[in-house]
Amino acid sequence: MNNTLILQDCLEEFICQNELGEIKHQDAFEMFSILQITKESETSYDELSSCIVDGGLDGGIDSFIILVNDKAINSEDQLPEIKIIESSNIQIFINQSKYENSFKEGPINNLQSSMPIILDIDALEDILLERFNPLLVEKILLFRSIWRLCIKKKASINLKYTYSSKSNEICINKSFQSKVDQLIAFTKNNMNIDNIGFKLYSAKELLTIYSKQTSKELELKFKENPVPVSFRETEFGYIGIVALNDYYNFITNDGNSIRENIFENNIRHYQGAVDVNNNISLTLRNDNENDFWWLNNGITIIASNCRPLLKTLFLEDPQIVNGLQTSYTIGKYYSEPKNENRSILIKVIQSNNKKTIDKIISASNSQNPVPPSLLRATDDIQRDLEIYCLNKGYYYDRRKNYYKNKQKPANKIISIQNMAQAIEAILNYSPANARSKPTTLIKEEISYKKIFNPNIDFGAYLTCSIICQKVADFIKNNVNSDEKGIQRNFMYHLARVTVSFILCKHNYNSDEIARIREDSISIEKIKDANDFLAQVIYKYRESNPKENIINISKSNKFVTLLNDSLKIIFND
């Protein structure tokens, strides 16, 4: 039982480190396990929290994770931004997490019952809502959209069922394995793909992943000693030539898949068969008379530390901020071993200064028009918000996973998207927009500037985020499992109502929100707001019986009724 006991200690440390004291151990174990399962994808706490669908009518599924090129896809709002091509990496995780000491057949039985309807494209939204909770239904519809795109673009899908428990080690009987084999065979036949797997994670497997350190230092070999170029003591650089073979090894995991995490700060992902990439590919395949670096602008890498050793640089936390298209094209070119003598130009900059890094990222990607939404993290207001939140004991994660990688508490980390949704729901009285358009809020210039207004007290912004976090915790810990799936659809509505109940008024302003003390955001206030919201939902459904719960949560018509009802009880 040593593995189980050690896992329990690690789980307690996880709860303590992330300041999740009020969370139930089952919920903590669920988050802990899916963080381990997706560890190589560099997913964030917020992204994975949005993938959790457990509760009543969950069909035996605790979390439903969709990754496209290691980016979590959690809403239809993201679909227009997804560019799926034949080489895209699409991973689907259908997870079960049980805070139990053994693997049981019940969860497999549930999946065998649920998957036929999930994979039945003819089963429409209203039919799905008769079987599953709204959060799971949205994930199913999103999965189907991705599935269709993959078929059209001839891209492959990797679907993996996972089942985690506290069992000391994997121990199952023949009946269990037979049901797993049946589930895999059924999925293969109905999706017409071969990349289907089922992975069990006992305490032993989870501890193995947990103890494995994510490599933060990578080795980059140069043809000759890279030339150091000094600027100041803590910020300097190197320029050198790297053999294409060695660069390929640097950007891939053991010569296999691309290391997605080192491209996190490149503002564009791979654009596929566009003219530029086609030209790079033609040069790689056909022009052996000229060295590659003569014909290519090269690669820019930022690292927090550079450790030179002869013809090698050991780079800590490397980020390729310019040259992703070239890198991915090289990755495709080297899908088979090559007898290669050509090279690529590499520029390495050592810096820990966030302002400097942001300027480098922006300047390195300014050759071609870039949508403003892709550079939000470098805006002055985002930088200022980060500093403000730090001074208040919170971590504004304007650059994804920066604070997760520094092991800051999960419930103190706030992403740009979550901050925007909280502001839209509370300050702008638009919980339906916050619910239905999470990506659009910061993508479109008008809505972005309306949300992130430098003339508004940053205290109001932070308070909005804290209220949304406390509301999410309330739903997780105080709502019964049968209602969780529905209530999470109305999280932003509940946050907006909670503010009115705290201030005892329908209308409020940013200064009033900024003055709300954190200890006044009590469970009692949220519960009162929740009871009121439930009454309004019931009233709306009586008048609109044909409208399903997902559409209600996205409806501005419902928000109008909600606001009118608040005016009545607060007489303002």
UniProtKB/TrEMBL annotation:
Residues 263-540 form the Abortive phage infection protein C-terminal domain. This is Abortive phage infection protein C-terminal domain-containing protein. It comes from Ruminiclostridium papyrosolvens C7. The lineage of its organism: Bacteria, Bacillati, Bacillota, Clostridia, Eubacteriales.
